[in-house]
Write a structure and sequence with these properties.
Distance between the termini: 116 Å
Largest sheet: none
Strand content: under 5%
Number of helices: 1
Structural class: mainly alpha
Low-confidence stretches: none
Length: 87
């Protein structure tokens, strides 16, 4: 009698059933984690998207302030250098 003539569960089929079961368990866990992360993203992304305006405005304000200070101080140095060179 060949291996293919066996009706019923064989050691090979037990192993395959176990693999299928473990794969299904891993799939369910992965699906649960995906859904959890997806829900969190749906809650947090709008907050993050809205925060961008405050973040960009704050950084641009600091940049302009720093640039203004730079030009003011550079102007003072130029005036000082011109005054010294004319003497």
């Amino acid at each position: 009698m060949s291996h293919h003539d066996n009706k019923g569960v064989t050691p090979d089929s037990d192993y395959l059933i176990l693999c299928i079961y473990q794969t299904e368990e891993a799939m369910h866990e992965t699906e649960r984690l995906y859904n959890e992360l997806n829900e969190e993203l749906h809650r947090e992304l709008p907050k993050f998207y809205n925060y961008r305006i405050d973040f960009i405005a704050s950084n641009l304000s600091r940049l302009y302030s720093t640039e203004s200070t730079f030009h003011s101080e550079t102007g003072k140095v130029c005036i000082h250098c011109n005054t010294k060179s004319m003497k």
